[in-house]
Specification:
about 0% helix, four-stranded antiparallel beta sheet, mainly beta, globular, single chain, about 110 residues, three-stranded antiparallel beta sheet
Length: about 110
Amino acid sequence: MLVGSAPSNGGQAELLTTTRSNKSGNTAFFSNPQSTGNPNNITFVTQDWNPGGGDNGTYNDAQTGVLYAGSQEGVFNEDNTSMPLNAAFNLLIFRLTRRANDKRLSRPALQAP
């Protein structure tokens, strides 16, 4: 579970900020060792109006979701509106892996807070 920008229960926390280079239409793509090339991971996203503090945050007035396309993951606006530049998102990523000779996915053991 993501509380603010701090990870809990063994996930990897990332901050995603939308830039011209990672934005395409309604989606901001990201890559990191937990998610790139691994469509089986689980990613939680929360919008972060102003991760650095102060009065200059970027407001994204849309509900967001997470998608996996090709070998990259992305945060997208569910109403299909364009993703604003400098919008920020807290990500919490859990890498899932397959056990040898097992078709089921396993996840890291979750720890109680």
